[in-house]
């Protein structure tokens, strides 16, 4: 069998060479009668001949034929390509030469039926598949891949040998395997094709495999299973509800339709006689059992059609067996397809875990960026800055404004980052000098005061920039994603944010561990009084710290603005997560913030993955988790250690 | 001698630093005891452990005739059981009147619902007046305690401790910031209190301790270095070495 | 007992007298029962304001007195609204469905009515089943009991977890904020069983009182709100005036010290947290039938922060301060955002109050926090020449040492 097929394929491939001499015009002339009144049964050889002719006009002729563009001159039974022009047609003969015009009455337009048009289309596929233009060939492959049909298999195989472009060749080969596993008449071939893919993650493969495993529900009377490729047997109550099972019975004409409550009501209402229905007073019919009794009475009287009662339904459902049956009759193929899909699912699961890890990592990086400024101010000054979210927004808007002046996106981002830092640093220092400074030792009041700043600032930004989202466009080189396979990919923007977070981590470590400022900040954090007596000015340190925290928020704002909508509410979307990060991570330590961000980001992604339809629920569960987490680590993952923490 | 508070073999570390190292200590039901030691000897940590603020890594703390295990109790439970503590700085509720401060401390049910239904009876008023008189604040009852002088606050706190009627009293540097006359009064009061209950005084001031005239425990590096009368411990060469000798 | 409270707190009498006077003025000015110079919608606004005052009282108790800055109390408020809204919507829909089914030839079955109600209420979220949480929506008494039980239990569980772990200060504020957010996000889902972001609507129609006009209903609700506020004011004056109040203020100022006095600080906090949550829920029960609609946006963390803002502007640590703050700020807010205040033209900039009110509020709030920590209530002290104790520059709240200690405590 396979040998024969191969021979056919070989012939198809060789034919163009052997029959090159014949022209489309000659073939058409020879088969004029068949072309004029084509039928699906007889036209095959003509189309094949046209295909095999090698005449460049053949494709044009076929195309015209399929789309009512081929006409027959009534006077001499000659074929022309016709194009409506004014009242008549513009004619082109089958060699491609212009043949003048003709009035409509002289030409009869050929209208092949759908079956013939299908054959022509299939034949055309082969033309496009072997088109000298690679773009055309690629287009043809894409169109086949989009809607594969049995008829495509042979032309595709035929076109395989002549392919010179290696990429297209691979694509053709893959498509051929995909078509083989679906449409090849030989079961063994199909199984080989399926197994050949292994655990390939391509969506096209899954798209090809899934229809093989499509099932339909089947009802069988008696115990013997039907002679079909059974996927599995269903037991009512466990695999399908009784109602569904009965619906199947009704659909298979094995049982009478069940009466819906509405139908029953209508039937009863139609048979009211003297305030009674079926001998039961109307007033009593506010009860389902009474209605059933009334209906049964009407049934017995023969006034309404018989309908199944719930007892009958149960009995009928129990008397039948239910199966899921594959549409594909060959068990070998379905078995192989199932095994392949299982392999794919397993591998996909593993890949999803990797992808999830990447997602979590990038989300963590965002939370880290958003929270780090907050953690600094809280760690050093014990001030929760509720306006932190607005600093993020301010940073993002700074980026937007810069892009209004500097059209080059790369340059604008490079300007925006330090500028956002400067703007929010200045805003932070201003707020510290004007407000926070007066509220040290009163953390709850500084929280509320910064909240006041937050609402004022948010509204101010709204008044300036409006409520609609402003674009902050990433440079083109950050477009797209780093794709590993169909499952694992990560967008370049997220990678950039991740890198930015890393840079900040390093910068911060350097600042705290290697600079005089860092030393002083650490000293003030641990013991402000002692630090002051050592000649450190805590006022200055607090100011710089608050400015630094705010400045980092500005930079984080630019980063977030690159992929989120820049509105005046951008900050409030991140503020609670940032708080959570600080609370979970513990204060006074950059690693704590990092751990907190990783945990919050990771957790959120994991919960989203378990319940993908619902990101809202994911956040709810995450917050619940955090509340519970605080029970066990009230001071965060990495708390301030030592005696200083206790006294 | 039976003891009301028994601390045995406790150790606690902060971040690797061993603040208390296998410390054992006991005090009788009506005894005055002074604890001295250089800075960092573990005096405050010791009090934190007894009052339940800090949990030791190992060891036991038992209280009373029925040997209650203090390590399983919260600060509030320990306080209710009868261990009172006076902090180094006067910590009274500055926004409340002297009467309110004393009422808070008065021995009564601490259950929120009972407190909600609590109404001052004549006997409470008398008790408060008596306590105020005892600490010399009889004519300050209606004043907010934030308006009192530093010494008066110290007194008020002692009054609050008395109102609690504790069986063991931990007093942290009671004489700090007091005038000489006030010190003398404090000494007398501590000695007086120790007649009916155990009083542990942590103090730096040797002169003050000498006036208390009681058994002294010397702490050093988290454990007991010496114990006995003040004269006895001041002659101990180890004590002289770590505490006095360097001077 | 009541006599004693009133005698000890003359401000209670003054407050009650003013509230009564206010109620009389509104009643005789209303369209239903008086001259009609107070429009029905303004009666509703005033009634809602009274409910907000009630919530502010609760906020003052927990923040002003107990020092716990909860940023989640509006969640309990909204929860109360949801719970009463469920009954209102169910019973009202039931009336409509029963009326519709009565047109049929046959009397309706219970199942048909249920189905009809479910389709009516949940059609908007593409469901026709009554979710489990609506199990008791048919019964007013049960739903009223739930109004107390659900927010109470939620507060109890949350508070128990938080206070047991000794979460204090800003940590606790953030945690309560997170709780509110979690609840809001949950309710935003369509499958939460509470109609997702559509919320509950049509709550202004009282079941069984279809022929009573809104003009009358609004006054009735106004009365009820005033009564609730008066009752809560009396009860809370009693709570804060006695030893209990003394204990919670002591907890606010120095929690560790209170612990060493033998008070179980956590129990007290839990008690206050739960009590105030229930008060907020009751306020919500009265508020939302006047508002007519409730949706998850009402639970947004910002709502709870506004509650704190009202109390701060009014003056915390005194009950009348909370009431004044809530009434003043929320009325000003509706005045300014209602577009009834003329815009100011500054030449280059036009201050349109609808847009600039929030900016003004934020700035005023910062100024109040900085320069008038006693809020509007401080004016009364000035008038009465009442001075707070001179603490020689010591902070109002807990001492700085004890604060650090509290935050780091395990």
UniProtKB/TrEMBL annotation, chain A:
<feature type="transmembrane region" description="Helical">
    <location>
        <begin position="365"/>
        <end position="384"/>
    </location>
</feature>
<keyword id="KW-0029">Amino-acid transport</keyword>
<feature type="transmembrane region" description="Helical">
    <location>
        <begin position="575"/>
        <end position="603"/>
    </location>
</feature>
<feature type="transmembrane region" description="Helical">
    <location>
        <begin position="615"/>
        <end position="632"/>
    </location>
</feature>
<keyword id="KW-0813">Transport</keyword>
<feature type="signal peptide">
    <location>
        <begin position="1"/>
        <end position="21"/>
    </location>
</feature>
<dbReference type="GO" id="GO:0005886">
    <property type="term" value="C:plasma membrane"/>
</dbReference>
<keyword id="KW-1003">Cell membrane</keyword>
<dbReference type="InterPro" id="IPR017779">
    <property type="entry name" value="ABC_UrtB_bac"/>
</dbReference>
<keyword id="KW-0472">Membrane</keyword>
<dbReference type="GO" id="GO:0006865">
    <property type="term" value="P:amino acid transport"/>
</dbReference>
<keyword id="KW-0732">Signal</keyword>
<protein>
    <submittedName>
        <fullName>Urea ABC transporter permease subunit UrtB</fullName>
    </submittedName>
</protein>
<keyword id="KW-0812">Transmembrane</keyword>
<dbReference type="GO" id="GO:0022857">
    <property type="term" value="F:transmembrane transporter activity"/>
</dbReference>
TrEMBL record, chain B:
<dbReference type="GO" id="GO:0005886">
    <property type="term" value="C:plasma membrane"/>
</dbReference>
<dbReference type="InterPro" id="IPR003439">
    <property type="entry name" value="ABC_transporter-like_ATP-bd"/>
</dbReference>
<dbReference type="GO" id="GO:0005524">
    <property type="term" value="F:ATP binding"/>
</dbReference>
<dbReference type="InterPro" id="IPR017781">
    <property type="entry name" value="ABC_transptr_urea_ATP-bd_UrtD"/>
</dbReference>
<keyword id="KW-0547">Nucleotide-binding</keyword>
<dbReference type="InterPro" id="IPR051120">
    <property type="entry name" value="ABC_AA/LPS_Transport"/>
</dbReference>
<dbReference type="InterPro" id="IPR027417">
    <property type="entry name" value="P-loop_NTPase"/>
</dbReference>
<keyword id="KW-0067">ATP-binding</keyword>
<dbReference type="InterPro" id="IPR003593">
    <property type="entry name" value="AAA+_ATPase"/>
</dbReference>
<dbReference type="GO" id="GO:0016887">
    <property type="term" value="F:ATP hydrolysis activity"/>
</dbReference>
<keyword id="KW-0813">Transport</keyword>
<protein>
    <submittedName>
        <fullName>Urea ABC transporter ATP-binding protein UrtD</fullName>
    </submittedName>
</protein>
<dbReference type="Pfam" id="PF00005">
    <property type="entry name" value="ABC_tran"/>
</dbReference>
<feature type="domain" description="ABC transporter">
    <location>
        <begin position="5"/>
        <end position="246"/>
    </location>
</feature>
UniProtKB/TrEMBL annotation, chain C:
<dbReference type="GO" id="GO:0005886">
    <property type="term" value="C:plasma membrane"/>
</dbReference>
<dbReference type="InterPro" id="IPR043428">
    <property type="entry name" value="LivM-like"/>
</dbReference>
<feature type="region of interest" description="Disordered">
    <location>
        <begin position="391"/>
        <end position="410"/>
    </location>
</feature>
<keyword id="KW-0812">Transmembrane</keyword>
<feature type="transmembrane region" description="Helical">
    <location>
        <begin position="220"/>
        <end position="246"/>
    </location>
</feature>
<feature type="transmembrane region" description="Helical">
    <location>
        <begin position="140"/>
        <end position="163"/>
    </location>
</feature>
<feature type="transmembrane region" description="Helical">
    <location>
        <begin position="319"/>
        <end position="336"/>
    </location>
</feature>
<feature type="transmembrane region" description="Helical">
    <location>
        <begin position="356"/>
        <end position="384"/>
    </location>
</feature>
<protein>
    <submittedName>
        <fullName>Urea ABC transporter permease subunit UrtC</fullName>
    </submittedName>
</protein>
<feature type="transmembrane region" description="Helical">
    <location>
        <begin position="293"/>
        <end position="312"/>
    </location>
</feature>
<feature type="transmembrane region" description="Helical">
    <location>
        <begin position="12"/>
        <end position="33"/>
    </location>
</feature>
<keyword id="KW-0472">Membrane</keyword>
<feature type="transmembrane region" description="Helical">
    <location>
        <begin position="267"/>
        <end position="287"/>
    </location>
</feature>
<feature type="transmembrane region" description="Helical">
    <location>
        <begin position="71"/>
        <end position="90"/>
    </location>
</feature>
<dbReference type="Pfam" id="PF02653">
    <property type="entry name" value="BPD_transp_2"/>
</dbReference>
């Amino acid at each position: 069998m396979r040998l024969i097929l191969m021979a056919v394929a070989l012939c198809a491939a060789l034919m163009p060479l052997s029959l090159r001499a014949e022209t489309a015009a000659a073939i058409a002339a020879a088969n004029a009668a068949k072309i004029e009144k084509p039928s699906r049964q007889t036209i095959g050889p003509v189309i094949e001949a046209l295909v095999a002719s090698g005449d460049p006009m053949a494709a044009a002729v076929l195309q015209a034929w399929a789309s009512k563009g081929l006409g027959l001159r009534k006077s001499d039974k000659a074929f022309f390509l016709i194009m409506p022009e004014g009242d008549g047609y513009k004619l082109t003969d089958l060699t491609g030469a212009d043949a003048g015009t003709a009035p409509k009455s002289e030409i009869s337009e050929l209208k092949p039926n759908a079956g013939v048009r299908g054959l022509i289309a299939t034949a055309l596929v082969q033309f496009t598949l072997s088109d000298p233009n690679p773009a055309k060939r690629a287009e043809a492959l894409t169109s086949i891949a989009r809607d594969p049909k049995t008829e495509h298999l042979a032309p595709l195989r035929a076109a395989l040998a002549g392919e010179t472009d290696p990429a297209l060749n691979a694509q053709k080969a893959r498509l051929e395997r995909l078509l083989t596993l679906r449409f090849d008449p030989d079961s063994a071939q199909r199984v080989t094709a399926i197994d050949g893919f292994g655990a390939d993650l391509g969506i096209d493969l899954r798209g090809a495999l899934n229809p093989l495993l499509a099932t339909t529900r089947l009802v069988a009377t008696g115990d013997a299973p039907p002679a079909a490729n059974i996927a599995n047997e269903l037991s009512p109550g466990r695999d399908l509800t009784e109602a569904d099972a009965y619906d199947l019975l009704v659909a298979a004409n094995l049982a009478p339709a069940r009466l819906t409550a509405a139908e029953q009501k209508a039937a009863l209402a139609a048979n009211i006689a003297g305030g009674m229905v079926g001998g039961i007073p109307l007033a009593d019919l506010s009860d389902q059992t009474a209605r059933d009794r009334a209906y049964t009475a009407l049934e017995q009287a023969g006034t309404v059609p018989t309908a199944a009662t719930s007892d009958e339904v149960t009995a009928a459902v129990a008397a039948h067996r239910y199966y899921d049956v594959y549409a594909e009759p060959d068990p070998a193929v379905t078995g192989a397809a199932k095994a392949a899909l299982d392999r794919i699912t397993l591998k996909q699961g593993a890949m999803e875990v990797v992808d999830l890890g990447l997602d979590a990592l990038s989300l963590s990086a965002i939370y880290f960026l958003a929270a780090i400024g907050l953690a600094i101010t809280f760690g050093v000054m014990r001030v929760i800055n509720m306006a932190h979210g607005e600093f993020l927004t301010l940073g993002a808007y700074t980026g937007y404004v810069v892009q209004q002046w500097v059209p080059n996106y790369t340059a604008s981002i490079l300007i925006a980052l330090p500028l956002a830092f400067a703007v929010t640093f200045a805003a932070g220092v201003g707020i510290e000098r004007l407000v926070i400074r007066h509220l040290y030792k009163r953390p709850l009041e500084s929280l509320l005061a910064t909240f006041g700043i937050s609402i004022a600032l948010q509204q101010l930004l709204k008044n300036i920039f409006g409520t609609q989202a402003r674009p902050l466009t990433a440079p083109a080189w950050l477009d797209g994603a780093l794709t590993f396979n169909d499952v694992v990919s990560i967008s370049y923007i997220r990678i950039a944010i991740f890198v930015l977070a890393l840079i900040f981590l390093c910068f911060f470590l350097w600042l705290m561990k290697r600079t005089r400022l860092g030393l002083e900040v650490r000293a003030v954090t641990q013991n402000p009084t002692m630090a002051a007596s050592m000649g450190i000015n805590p006022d200055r340190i607090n100011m710089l710290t608050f400015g630094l925290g705010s400045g980092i928020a500005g930079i984080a704002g630019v980063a977030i603005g690159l992929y989120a909508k820049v509105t005046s509410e951008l900050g409030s979307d991140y503020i609670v997560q940032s708080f959570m990060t600080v609370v979970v991570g513990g204060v006074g330590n950059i690693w704590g913030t990092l751990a907190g961000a990783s945990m919050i980001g990771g957790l959120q992604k994991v919960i989203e993955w378990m319940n993908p339809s619902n990101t809202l629920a994911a956040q709810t569960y995450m917050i619940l988790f955090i509340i519970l987490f605080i029970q066990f680590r009230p001071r965060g993952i990495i708390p301030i250690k030592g005696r200083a923490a206790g006294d | 001698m039976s003891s009301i508070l028994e601390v045995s073999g406790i150790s606690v570390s902060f971040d690797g630093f061993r603040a208390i190292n296998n410390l054992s200590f006991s005090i009788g039901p009506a005894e005055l005891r002074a604890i001295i030691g250089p800075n960092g000897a573990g005096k405050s940590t010791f009090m934190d452990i007894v009052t339940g603020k800090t949990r030791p890594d190992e060891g036991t703390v038992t209280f009373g005739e029925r040997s209650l295990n203090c390590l399983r109790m919260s600060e509030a439970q320990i306080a209710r059981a009868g261990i009172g503590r006076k902090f180094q700085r006067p910590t009274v509720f500055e926004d409340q009147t002297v009467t309110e401060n004393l009422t808070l401390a008065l021995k009564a049910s601490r259950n929120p619902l009972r407190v909600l239904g609590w109404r001052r009876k004549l006997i409470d008023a008398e008790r408060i007046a008596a306590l105020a008189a005892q600490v010399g604040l009889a004519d300050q009852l209606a004043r907010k305690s934030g308006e009192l002088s530093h010494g008066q606050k110290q007194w008020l706190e002692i009054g609050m401790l008395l109102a609690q009627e504790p069986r063991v009293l931990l007093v942290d540097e009671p004489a700090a910031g007091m005038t000489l006359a006030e010190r003398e009064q404090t000494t007398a009061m501590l000695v007086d209190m120790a007649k009916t209950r155990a009083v542990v005084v942590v103090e730096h001031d040797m002169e003050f301790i000498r006036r208390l005239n009681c058994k002294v425990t010397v702490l050093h590096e988290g454990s007991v270095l010496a114990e006995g009368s003040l004269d006895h411990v001041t002659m101990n060469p180890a004590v002289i070495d770590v505490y006095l000798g360097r001077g | 007992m009541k006599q004693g409270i009133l005698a000890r707190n003359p401000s209670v009498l003054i407050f009650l007298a003013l509230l009564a006077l206010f109620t009389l003025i509104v009643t005789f000015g209303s369209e239903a029962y008086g001259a009609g110079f107070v429009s029905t919608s303004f009666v509703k606004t005033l009634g809602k304001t009274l409910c907000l005052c009630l919530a502010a009282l609760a906020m003052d108790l927990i923040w002003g007195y107990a020092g716990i800055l909860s940023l989640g109390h509006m969640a309990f408020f909204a929860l109360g609204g949801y719970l009463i809204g469920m009954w209102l919507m169910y019973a009202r829909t039931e009336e409509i469905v029963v009326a519709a089914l009565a047109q049929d030839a046959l009397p309706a079955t219970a199942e048909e009515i249920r189905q009809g109600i479910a389709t009516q209420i949940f059609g908007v979220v593409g469901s026709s089943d009554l979710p489990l949480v609506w199990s008791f929506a048919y019964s007013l008494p049960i739903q009223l009991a739930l109004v107390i039980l659900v927010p109470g239990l939620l507060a109890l569980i949350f508070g128990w977890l938080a206070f047991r772990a000794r979460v204090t200060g800003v940590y606790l504020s953030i945690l309560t904020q997170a709780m509110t957010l979690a609840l809001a996000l949950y309710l935003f889902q369509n499958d939460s069983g509470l109609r997702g972001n559509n919320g509950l609507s049509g709550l202004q129609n009282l079941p069984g009182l279809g022929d009573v006009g809104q003009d009358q209903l609004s006054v009735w609700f106004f009365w009820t709100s005033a009564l609730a506020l008066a009752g809560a004011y009396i009860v809370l004056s009693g709570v804060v005036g006695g030893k209990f109040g003394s204990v919670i203020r002591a907890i606010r100022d120095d929690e560790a010290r209170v612990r060493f006095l033998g008070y179980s600080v956590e129990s007290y906090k839990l008690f206050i947290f739960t009590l105030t949550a229930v008060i907020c829920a009751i306020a919500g029960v009265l508020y939302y039938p006047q508002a007519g609609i409730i949706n998850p946006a009402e639970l947004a963390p910002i709502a709870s922060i506004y509650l704190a803002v009202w109390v701060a502007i009014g003056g915390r640590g005194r009950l009348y301060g909370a009431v004044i703050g809530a009434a003043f700020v929320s009325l000003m807010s509706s005045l300014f955002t209602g577009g009834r205040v003329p815009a100011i033209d500054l030449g280059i900039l036009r201050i349109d109050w609808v847009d600039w009110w929030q900016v003004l509020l934020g700035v005023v709030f910062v100024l109040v926090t900085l320069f008038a920590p006693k809020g509007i209530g401080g004016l009364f002290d000035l008038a009465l020449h009442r001075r707070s104790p001179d603490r020689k520059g010591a902070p109002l709240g807990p001492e700085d040492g004890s604060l650090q200690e509290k935050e780091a405590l395990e």
